[in-house]
Amino acid sequence: MHVTPLVWWITILVTSAILLFDVFVIGRRPHEPTRREVIGALAVYVGLAVVFGIGVWLISGGEHGGEFFAGWLTEYSLSIDNLFIFIVIMTKLAVPRELQQSALLIGIVLALVLRGIFIAIGAAAIAEFSWVFYIFGLFLVLTAINLAREGGEDEGGYDEPRLVRWARRHLRLSEHWHGAKLTTHQTGQRHFTPMFIVVLTLGMTDLLFALDSIPAIYGLTKEAYLVLTANIFALMGLRQLYFLIGDLLQRLVFLSYGLAFLLLFIGVKLILHAMHENELPFVNGGEHIEWAPDIPIWVSLVVIVGTLAVTTVLSLAADRRRTTA
Q: In this predicted structure, what is the pLDDT of residue 52?
């Protein structure tokens, strides 16, 4: 897939403009969005992602179009699971409902910056070392196993990142909220507000999420441009999903297991790809392992859509039975 520097810059500028518009418009008026507002914004973002994917399909072919949709759906699914943690963070830190949207916007911008760094590092590593796919694949397999084991556990056991605990001990913190401000003057000194702790927590949490999501999407496409755009479109809708389906998240009881299966599938796909392009001297004498198949993107897309559909249906059915009982 050939992407000119002009296309890169146009993509970055347009998506940045959308995010900055959202940040400045919402930031001036912190509030809890209405259901109509959330559905409208979410429809726009999802529509933009679909139109973009169709554009990639028409311009660069079905292979790359399928890679974008597979990557976008995977990132969106992982983002939905991440909302469980976001809800816990907002609850534990007692963030006022009218300020939650501002906190999420700042957290999403931080996530884009952090993921952009990871994407660049991943692209450089893949270009130089094919054995990186072994590492990505094993990491995703281990992540899938841990996610499946923790699938039924209570999210209330979430622990604050170490950096946040350090900030609580060493920084001057105000006990009072000052809107969306991160700092305030108090008794003649600069103090950090509770919003600063919220943003720091969301930023560190997003960093941990990127450790799962970036290797996962590189298992579906090696095109850095598609990796970046899939992440951008998935994060664009994250804030709207938070307010729209907060209650529904509690009903998706099998979501973690479905995502664990997806990560396991992508991890195995990465390992097979690494075997197919093997260059490690201690594996098959440094020769390519011809019998290791490269799973085509259409198979990945079918597995992703099928897994999400089955997970949702089974979750809602189980929730309905529990409610009836």
A: 92
